[in-house]
């Protein structure tokens, strides 16, 4: 069986750090939105030729030197984990065309892993429910659970609590990235919990576009720590605002930044202008649901 899957990127429309667990993991409260910027996976699945091991044969390749295939690729880890848990022998081949910048905070690797889990679960006639598959994804990476659901969602805990946000408005965005890959671990190490919102819950509420300025909804507690390491994050935000963005914010642990625009035409003009300045930039829209989930 051959399948082609589009694995979307994401942005964090808001991201608050509420505290830290004893094991070192930070507790989050975030609004995460899928966007129409995609990696493309071509996956071939067939009954395994070996009978003694669940993960009969897995091969993952990529067209990007920044995201090599092999066992270190999150999609490879996802395939091996699912087959080990379900106890089935399959031959799995996957090739990833990378369009989501690597190390940008846009979630490409996690989305690829979720696409692999979704494809294998369908091929095996869905031994896992969506919630079970999301829990499995959480063992691979913090954002994988979100991509299993593939909808605008509020993310809490360490990423495992995913609550869909109904009727989230479609937004026109420009995402830009200067190629500087920030270490997530390093960014989190610079978070000063005394300066973040430490309480059991935060005040994130669904956006009402026509009733409140978007700039007031955009918050990311990781932005200031990231800017300590890579000050150009703030420069990218300024460039987006100069191009007419209603608000701008770093996504995830960076260093990609997005701006919210009035409409798709304005976003496209802004992205084109930023590209003339030597910045990778793409005009995108938020999604109601990921194509990886629909297929």
Q: Would you write up a description of this structure?
A:
With about 300 residues, this protein is of the alpha+beta class. The chain has two domains: about 160 residues, Ribosomal Protein S5, domain 2 (2-Layer Sandwich), CATH 3.30.230; about 110 residues, Alpha-Beta Plaits (2-Layer Sandwich). Strands 1, 2, 3, 4, 5, 6 and 8 form a seven-stranded mixed sheet that branches. Strand 9 and strand 10 form a beta hairpin. Helix 1 runs parallel beside helix 2.
Task: Provide a quick synopsis of the model.
This protein has 295 residues and is an alpha+beta fold. The chain contains 10 helices and 11 strands.
The main sheet comes to: 7 strands, mixed
Question: What is the mean pLDDT?
Answer: 91
Strand element count? 11
Q: What's the helix count?
A: 10
Number of domains: 2
Strand content: 25-35%
Order of helices and strands: EEEHEHHHEEEHHEHHEEHEH
Low-confidence stretches: 51-55
How helix-rich are the residues, as a percent range?
25-40%
Distance between the termini: 14 Å
CATH topology of the largest domain: Ribosomal Protein S5, domain 2
- CATH architecture name of the largest domain: 2-Layer Sandwich
The radius of gyration is 19 Å
Annotation keywords:
29% strand; 295 residues; globular; alpha+beta; Ribosomal Protein S5, domain 2; 10 helices; 2 domains
Topology:
Blueprint: E1 2-20, E2 26-47, E3 57-62, H1 74-86, E4 90-97, H2 108-123, H3 130-138, H4 144-149, E5 153-157, E6 161-164, E7 172-177, H5 184-189, H6 214-217, E8 219-220, H7 223-229, H8 232-242, E9 247-250, E10 257-261, H9 264-276, E11 280-285, H10 291-294
Parallel strand pairs: 1-8, 3-4
Antiparallel strand pairs: 1-2, 2-4, 2-5, 5-6, 7-10, 7-11, 9-10
